[in-house]
Every structure is written in structure tokens, then in C-alpha cells.
Amino acid sequence: MKYKLLAASILATLSTSATSATYQLSELGTLEDAKYSYVKDVSESGHIIGFANGLYNLPIDTSYIDFSENIIENSYDNTKAAFELSDKEITFTLDDIENNDAVLTNADAHTFMVSFLSSISTNFEYQKLSSLVGVKYNDTQVTEQSLFDVASVDYDGLTRSTSNIFNAVSEDGVTVGWGSAPYDKVSFIPDGDDEAETWFTHEFIERGMVISADGLKVPLEPEFNEYGGTSRANDIVKTNSGYTVVGNMSTSIPDDRQDNIDDNCDNEDEPTSVCINLLNTNISRGLFNKRAVKWELDESLNITSVEELGLALTPDEGETEDDAFTSTALAVNSNGIIVGSSNTRYYKNDDTILTMPVYFKDGAVIDFIDQEDDWQAGKSIAINDNDVITGYATKRIEGTLRNKFFYHDIATGNTVFPTDYFSSSSSYSNDINNQGYIVGEGEVGVSDNTRRKEAFIYKIGEDKITNLNDLLPCFDTDGETNYAYTMAEATSINENNEIFGTATKTVEKLDSLGGVVTDVNGEIEYESIAVAVKLTPIANGEVDDCAPPDAEVYERNSASFPWYTLLLLPLVGLRRIFRF
């Protein structure tokens, strides 16, 4: 039985029809070849973008693999042991994969290879795979939008080696995001060896992209592009003369980081691009100095100006030679005010560098969260046209770092951290509209040592968030079956108070080739998946009371909240991508 959080009494305290009405949930569709779908941004004119994950039939290239190497033999042995623990018999051998094309027909073999390649993602002697693709939603039709991927020379279709992050869409359908370069399979002879080895290399780690409504792609080349450089495009707004795009880009490499490159990346033991990737991953603040940036583009998407937006600190002379410093722009409003995050100094110790929420205005970088209240990290995520910012900040609560969403009014300088689900719940805001409604997600409880998240809506000036699941029906249309969806995150809200985000539902489990999975007894297995959804307010709707007669009142901020089947790793892990 699905319970509600005294929704009627909470809604009675809210002041507008958006939260005093129930919502109708509709799915936006799922990419045909993917398991999960998500929303990232929605324009007021109805353009909807997002991403899909969990692609079926990822292409596996086995032609270069030596299946007698310990690394793959050990992985196979571990997989075989896991089968045995589940009272299952493994259905493939390494010889089947090498010589009998098992990855094309045997889902267990295909799953094994995908898992194996994922587990050694920092080993560039093996194929790189990515299951993350950008998508556009249009009248239940979902179409993929590739950013930098290209046709493979080793198998049919795209290489599927690139990340594709769709971030924002303008009123006329121009989209922005960022992605990685596709990997090439190259032959490389390490210094001192006689035989060539296979390695996987690419031209750059990440690069921003602008895509017109009809598909024209405009890469945002960083002005500092040594070793490929980096750039990201995070938001776009339509202007009278074209478009404003904000994000960040590489501006230089600190002297100490250049020394790391000179000492290690000599193209002798490994290709230079591989060395650059590894250093960038393993050094805490990366190789590149990065700055928040604003690009201006004309109607034809020609770049007319590039402006660096600065840092919330001034590096000392010695620091410019040391670790990299970063700021990034995540959103811009119609007034040209930009929000994001920046490295800044810890108020107790100038040598300690934090990343804090900021906004960029009139050439200044304003760090506005009070560190003396123990806040020590965070980001400004969105800003409305009334110059009210929302985001999250991080502090230690009950011994553990937790995130709490906030809103900040630039005009008054006031910052408010509203009451969320419970005191040690981590909460994130994702969007704010001009009416002051904020949407996001927060932790609702703990099950099996895992903190589960559910979506919320909050009206500025009210005391408490409302769980969006409290505004959905208790039952499906038959009046008996529990409602099939749980709102896990709310990503975007428009001026009609329509909410877009991600819900979870239980479906028949499909394997990595798209086939239905059965257990040892031949019974169909089930799983929870993420689906992109739209919530539409129902005028004069009534909140359902889902509690059975004589049931005890349940408070959602209790740790004993009943378990809902949620998609955990794909949902939470991917959200982290967009917060950096």
C-alpha cells in the first residue's frame, strides 16, 4: 500500500493552484534501443531534451583481445563463481566469445563483456564503451542526437565510445551540451618492444557543442586547446541578435601540471593522449585551469564573442604554478545574470580551496554562501528572471557531508535553506520558474543502507517542501492496483507549472541484448526502470488519501519509510555528471 504524507493539510498551507491540485503523469517515451530515459531541459515553447542510458546491443569488438591474458580469465572465473552462487550454470566460455561470436547471440556473454570493459575503463588497451546518448522528445517520439560520435570502422553503426550530454534548449529549439571525442583503435609500439600493441586513443576529453534545430553542429573550441583542451556548454538563451551560451573552457595548464605531463607523457610507454587522460583523472583538480565562459552567437550560430567570467578568488603568484583553478557557468537568465560555481578560499585557511555556489554579474564573481555556518561546497544550478537563484550547498550533518537546497534573492542578498524531508536528508534543486516554484529531489529514507530519493516541489515563502508523489493518484485506473509510478526527480518546471522529470516503474526485466530475463525456474523477472515523464496540473483536483482505514499516520521523514522500487545507480550516478 502506498502511503501519503498528510498531503491535504500540507497543501492547505500553499498559496496557489499549482500545488493545491493533483497532477496527471504522462510518459514522454523511451528511445527504442535503451532501457532508461531522463529529462534534462524544457523550453516554454515545448522543446524537450534529455538523455537515454542502458543501450541494448552495445557493439563489442573482440578482434584484438588476447583471451589468454590473466585480466580477462580472472574476470570470467569471477563471473562463473557468481553464476554458481545463484544456482545457475554459466552458458558461455571465453572460447565461445573469441571464436563463435557469442556476444551477438548469448546475452550472458554480451553482459559479461560489457561489464568487463566497464570495470577496466582506465585501461586504454581495451575498447571504450558509453551507453549515454542525448535525445529529443516530440509527441511520444524519441530520437537520438549524437554529438561527436562517428561511424565505426570495425563494426556497423556508431563507435558508441563517446559521452553525449544534452544540457539545455532555447525557445526555438537550439540545443547545447558537451561530449567526448570518439576513440580510435591504434597500433602502438612501446619503447623497447618489438611488437605493436592495440591502444584506444581520442583527440580530446570533452568539448561543448551547439546544435541548431535542424541539426547543424557547432563545436565550441576552447581558446587554449593544448592536448585537446576542454569545454562544456551548459545553458542557452535566445537573444534579440542570436544566442547566449554559458559553460566553461580550459584557459591554461599550471606549471606544476605541465611538469607532470613532461615527466610522464613522452609517448614511449603509452600514447600521449592516454597519459593525458590518466593524469587528468588521477590529479584531484585536473590538468587544466578552467574558467566560466559566455559565448555570444549570431542567428546563424557564428561565434561573435567569447568572454571569460573569472574566479571567486585571485590566485597568488606561486599558486598560478601549482594546482588548477576552476569556475563554471551552469545557467543564465534573460537579464544576463549567470550562475554556477567557482573555486574560492576557505575562510579559516587561505590555503584550503573550496568549490562554492556563485553568480557572475557586471564583471564580478560573487560568492554568497556563508562559510561560517559550516557550508563548505556547493553549486548554483538555476536562476529565474526575477534574479532568484537556486542550488545546493554542502555541510557536515550528524557526522556526514550532506547537501541542502537553497534559494538566494540577489536583490535582497537573502539566502534561505528551506526545510526538506528530514534533518540529515540530502536535497537538490534543479529548476525555478518566475512564480517562485522550485523543483528537485531529496532523500526520503533509508532501506538496506541505501538512501532513496523522491521528487519535490517548493514555493518560495512556504515552510516546507511537498513530495510530488503526494500529488499523484493512489491507484491506477482500475481503482485497486497501486499506482505504477514513483517520481524520483523533478528536473524542470515551466510557467504553466508543468513539471518534467524522471519516474520509476516496474517492468519485465530485459537483458543487454533486449531479451526478457527469466529465473532458474523459468519465471519472468522484473526490474525498476527510469522513465521520462511530464506532470500536468489538474484544475480543481483533489489529493488522494492513500492511507487505509485506521492506519497510523506516517511521516515521510521517518527512517522506517517502506521500500519503493527505485532505480538507484543509473539515476544517482548520472545526476552527478550534470552537477560538475
Quick summary of this structure?
This protein is mainly beta and 580 residues long.
Shape: globular
The DSSP helix count reads: 9
Beta content comes to 35-45%
Helical amount among residues, as a percent range? 10-25%
Note poorly predicted spans: 1-21, 549-580
Structural class: mainly beta
Gyration radius from CA atoms, angstroms? 25 Å
The overall strand count is 30
Largest sheet report? 4 strands, antiparallel
Overall mean pLDDT score?
89
Give the N-terminus to C-terminus distance in angstroms.
Answer: 38 Å
- What is the topology, as strand order, of the major beta sheet? 1-30-29-28
Explain how this protein is built.
The structure is a single chain. The chain has 580 residues and is mainly β. The protein has nine helices and 30 strands. A four-stranded antiparallel beta sheet has the order 1-30-29-28. Strands 2-3-4-5 form a four-stranded antiparallel beta sheet, with no helix packed on it. Strands 6-7-10-11 form a four-stranded antiparallel beta sheet, with no helix packed on it. Strand 25 (437-447) and strand 26 (450-459) form a beta hairpin.
Summarize the helices and strands and which ones pair or pack.
Elements: H1 7-11, H2 17-20, E1 23-27, E2 34-42, E3 48-55, H3 70-85, H4 94-99, H5 102-105, H6 107-119, E4 133-138, E5 141-145, E6 164-169, E7 175-179, E8 184-188, E9 197-201, E10 207-211, E11 217-220, E12 231-238, E13 242-252, H7 255-264, H8 272-282, E14 289-298, E15 303-310, E16 327-332, E17 338-346, E18 349-361, E19 364-367, E20 377-383, E21 388-397, E22 400-409, E23 414-416, E24 427-432, E25 437-447, E26 450-459, E27 466-467, E28 486-493, E29 499-508, E30 526-537, H9 569-578
Antiparallel strand pairs: 1-30, 2-3, 3-4, 4-5, 6-7, 7-10, 8-9, 10-11, 12-13, 13-14, 14-15, 16-17, 17-18, 18-19, 20-21, 21-22, 22-23, 24-25, 25-26, 26-27, 28-29, 29-30
